[in-house]
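Design request, tokens follow.
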């Protein structure tokens, strides 16, 4: 919300929404029509790609294969969009190219919603956290939201402007009992296999983001 108490104007992102529970919009302007105080992050595509290889390339062959990508679920989940040569692995140039693509959108924040289900039933009262992948450095902030009766959560950074900064995130989903016991399997939180690329060009976001546990 802007300083004058009015909600910021939302500029629609150029995506096709295939599900009514997903809204993807670029937070670009204040309510007065003036440019938002937010600025797009200063990505370092080369440095981030180099960091990804340093962190996850345990074989030292200069590529991240299927097993190595398990340590970085956001890259693994987006491999279809990043793997330009179709060899089933990611090299430094491909990761760098994808981050450069995200940077070129010059988007400061993207409004994002997801749905959490198990079978066909919604998971109610779960906290969904988007935690920046380590290789992205310190330019991203964590974002989160809580699921409602339909299992839908609006994900946003905890500040007045809301939305999510484009980039790569691991996703952690938790739900506590009244006694504080975790009700969701650790492979969806402390040892998460979930990850997501957040950008206007993401196929997953355009088709409707659903986490099925």
């Amino acid at each position: 919300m802007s300083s004058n108490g009015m909600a910021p104007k939302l500029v629609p992102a150029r995506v096709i929404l295939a599900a009514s529970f997903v809204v993807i919009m670029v937070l670009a302007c204040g309510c007065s029509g003036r440019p938002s105080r937010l600025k797009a992050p200063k990505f370092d595509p080369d440095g981030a790609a180099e960091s990804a290889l340093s962190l996850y390339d345990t074989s030292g062959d200069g590529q991240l294969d299927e097993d190595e990508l398990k340590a970085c679920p956001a890259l693994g989940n987006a491999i279809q969009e990043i793997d330009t040569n179709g060899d089933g692995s990611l090299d430094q140039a491909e990761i760098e190219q994808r981050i450069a693509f995200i940077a070129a959108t010059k988007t400061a924040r993207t409004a994002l919603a997801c749905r959490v289900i198990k079978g066909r039933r919604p998971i109610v009262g779960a906290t969904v956290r988007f935690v920046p992948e380590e290789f992205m450095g310190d330019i991203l902030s964590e974002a989160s939201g809580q699921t409602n009766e339909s299992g839908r959560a609006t994900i946003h950074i905890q500040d007045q402007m809301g939305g999510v900064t484009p980039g790569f995130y691991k996703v952690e989903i938790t739900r506590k009992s009244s006694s504080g016991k975790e009700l969701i399997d650790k492979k969806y939180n402390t040892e998460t296999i979930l990850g997501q690329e957040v950008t206007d060009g993401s196929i997953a976001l355009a088709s409707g983001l659903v986490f099925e546990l």
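Comment from the thread starter after seeing the answer: thanks! The mean pLDDT is 84.
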